[in-house]
Specification:
Length: 258
């Protein structure tokens, strides 16, 4: 496909999205190389969540496209035209795109282990025993081996978010998207969740993380993207964007959050 950049895991090209009169994304371009971490910063309402939702086709874009590992998301190209994929095919594509939400979104009536094995068994048709083995390994990875049989309500917010990360990893996604994964947590629980994400970064997981945690961005991001008004205003290595921002809007934002 001509749209593929060799090592790009995620490509967002010229993406526009409008809700009624409000143009929320106004031509967003973003390339995320395989194995890299991109942190997205920006004021409330700048379009960060809409961008993440557009990447996994929870929002259909009005213009532009998204590709993951060279594959268009939500569409296929044929005869020079774009054809929308059937819901079933979009769901298949979404299994390759992990999503971690601000509010964890665990199934309250399922145990921790059941939360993790649900998607691999139902969406990927993994045998139950195999899915359970993988889930237990993931729980060990996020430091929650002793919580397999607990219910979400019995866990702290930080523990619930670590389960949500394990659940996302269970589908062996090509990319993990995080939408303010620590914003709903008490301050003392933020670190344990960021530590899990840092560990994933070290092992080469491709990630896009929307967060206001500037220290985390500085330490973990390969690229920091600053969005405002539905556009990428500035992007680059953390030292450039955070310590020497070129745009007044970036400076104004950082002066508020730092
Ligand atoms: P951020 O995550 O940066 O705070 P969002 O992407 O959530 O920003 O929202 C950007 C703008 O789009 C906001 O003004 C929001 O109110 C609006 N918006 C988001 N989703 C919808 C929707 N489904 N319908 C109408 N407006 C929306
Ligand atoms: Mg948001």
């Amino acid at each position: 496909m001509t749209t593929t950049t060799s090592d790009a895991m995620v490509q967002v090209r010229g993406v526009h999205k409008r809700f009624g009169a409000l143009e929320v994304l106004r031509g967003v371009d973003l390339v995320v190389p395989a194995g890299s971490v991109t942190v997205v910063l920006g004021p409330s309402g700048s379009g960060k969540s809409t961008l993440l939702r557009a990447i996994n086709h929870l929002e259909k874009v009005d213009r532009g496209f998204v590709a993951i590992d060279g594959e268009l998301i939500g569409y296929r190209r044929s005869g020079g035209k774009l054809h929308e994929l059937k819901e079933r095919e979009v769901l298949r594509q979404r299994t390759g795109i992990g999503f971690v939400f601000q509010n964890f979104n665990l199934f309250p009536h399922l145990t921790v282990l059941e939360n993790i094995v649900e998607a691999p068994v139902s969406a990927l048709r993994q045998p139950k025993a195999e899915a359970r083995r993988a889930a237990l390994a993931l729980l060990a990875r996020v430091g929650l081996s002793d919580k397999a049989d607990a219910y979400p309500r019995q866990l702290s917010g930080g523990q619930q978010q670590r389960v949500a990360i394990a659940r996302a990893l269970a589908l062996e996604p090509k990319v993990l998207l995080f939408d303010e994964p620590t914003s709903a947590l008490d301050p003392e629980l933020v670190g344990e969740v960021l530590d899990v994400i840092k560990d994933l970064a070290r092992t080469g997981t491709t990630m896009i993380v929307v967060t206001h945690e500037i220290g985390f961005a500085r330490e973990v991001a390969d690229t920091v993207v600053f969005m405002d008004g539905g556009l990428v205003v500035e992007q680059g290595p953390p030292a450039a964007v955070l310590d020497d921002p070129q745009h007044e809007r970036t400076r104004a934002f950082l002066s508020k959050v730092l």
